[in-house]
Amino acid sequence: MAENETLNFHFDVDGNDFTSAGEASVKVKKLMRQLGFSPELTRRVSIAMYEGEINMVIHANGGTADVYVDEDCLRVVLADEGPGIADVETAMQEGYSTAPDNIRALGFGAGMGLPNMKNYSDEMSIDSVVGKGTTIELKFKVS
Amino acid sequence: MISVNDLAKKLGLSSHNLDDGDREVTGGYAGDLLSWVMGRAVSGDAWVTIMSNINVIAVAQLTDVACVILAEGVVPGEELIAAAETRGVNLFSSNEPTFALCGRIYELIAPQNGAGEALEAAEAYREADC
Asked: Distances in Å between the alpha carbon of A36 and those of A31, A42, A90, B78, B100?
């Protein structure tokens, strides 16, 4: 990889197919291994991204996930055109969820998604407009 | 060390997909809320769960657990088994309750980590009793 070159990996997250959620995260995990990132960082990135994927499938009928790899920073940008988050602060609370029962029955909807994403990333920003969609950026320092 | 094969044999697990039976089991985790499991299960764990939808395989891959054990008589569907095969995840099931399975896994693994000879003695006693 040449110096100062940013690698970009783009993934479409299919909103109609709950069973395929996680494919992008697993691919990123493999890519990060190949690129020589530490197992610890690889784990944090792939888990945070999986939570984002699941959120987009549950709430927003899918979206896109982009991973940008710089020399000192890895960014994951999750963008959807879903209903948006009315109260981000509340949504960030552990245990708070608006997921329906059928999603809970699958083992999701515990209100852990956004908190996990925050915990696993070094920096997280949420840009959400009700009725328009949500974009979440996760930054991970590469040591 | 204890391998996935050893664990499966000692616990009498039903095997649904065996990708790497020689892999070492270094710990265990029990849980059904997938986000919770993702945050806490670690590489090398034997993960005991009653959840059997296909997302279990993705979580197993992301956490890099050594194997998934469906407890309490939960049986995997064809879709789950196919995903385990495609993605190389060791998948087992057992009729034992989660609590009992975890107790036995703990007994098998803890002595490896120097947790005490009493646990080994308990295992030997049970084996002699059988």
From this structure: 9, 9, 37, 35, 40
